[in-house]
Amino acid sequence: MSETRNAPIQAIDGRQRSGTVEPGGRSGAPLGWVWLAAWPVTAVFVLSNAATPLYVLWQRDIGFSKGTLTVVFAFYILGLIGSLLASGVLSDRIGRKPVLLPALLLALAACLIFATATTVAALIVARLFTGIAVGAVVSAGMAAVTDVAGPERKRIAALLASCAMVFGAGLGPLLAGVISETLPAPTVTAFVVEAVLLLTAVLAVLRMPLRRPAAPAKGAWVRVPGVPRGNGPQLALGIAVFAPGITATSFVLSLGPSLLSGLLGTTSRIVAGVMAFVMFLAATGVQFAVQRLDRRTILTAGAVSTTLSMTTLIVAVHTSSVPLLIVSALLAGAGQGMGQLGGLSLLNSSVPPQRLAEANAALNVGGYVPAGLLPVSAGYLSDAVGLTSGATVFGAVLMGLAVIGGLVVLTSRRQATEPA
User: Fold this and answer.
1) Lowest-confidence range among 19-23, 91-95, 333-337?
2) Looking at residue 212, what DSSP letter applies?
3) What is the CATH number for 274?
4) pTM recorded for the entire structure
């Protein structure tokens, strides 16, 4: 009798200390825990874009150009990519919590630096810390959602992890924009609110039913993340569509406020925040709308959406149209959302759990490298030749990349034919 009574206690204790389910075993934690596991992803991504509507305030108080603004944004990408070189491998080897908790603490430090920033250097450090935290979350955090969900709910895990990312990315600028227009000390208050959200995420991670990896992969601890042999085609298909999509949304985040305030004559930070929010709301909603379609259709639609976004962007800057700029942002969000869902779904369905965080990191490296380089180039080009010409060149280049991504998907075979 005593052994019978003790067994469940040991199982529960084991789940809290080291996990949910064995790979290929029975279902994971209750569905509520799957949703809660996605919350740290949302909370960190709120921080990732919370600074977007506040840059105009820092530009006014500190004084720096559009080129410098995109450099500040690029340090976020630099921190993110640097983090991805290690966080995915670390997470697969030592577990999700030991990677997520330090990332959340670094995000809290970024909040403190943002709230007290008086120089460009401080903004760069805060963005760098934010990028490192985001890199850890997109690898360890998104893999944690899959781990908690268990092998029988990989589809819902991919959907929730992807939607948590884009919803947080959109919620951040909306909150910051509203706070900056309605409350005192906007650059302080916005990051105090975000710090509270991050503290709740810390509590969620501490209680999350995760297991330590039973058979971690071998190799270098810091390396360019990749996927197991045979999964390269799935990774390539995801990057082909996800990279142009996230580059489009990165442009809106980095230079969207400048377009609104400079070229289009709109100075409201709420408008800048709402534009970013609806962009990522579109990225969230479209994933629920297309989740039952096959992956090739999702990825092709993502490439088409990004192409249309860049076409609309070029028309918007030449006609000084705020509505068209918002349409461009919505299409960019939809393109990123579908590329992200298709890519994550391909990896979730084919990569073993002990390499999943690294595979997620590889997908994001492939997406964030052009998302860092192209908007920075567009920012400096805009300083040299004007915002209209800079945005036009950027739109044309990214449109070409999106078309190529769509053609890559259309020429693929079985890798993208199953439902997401």
Assistant:
1) 19-23
2) -
3) 1.20.1250.20
4) 0.74
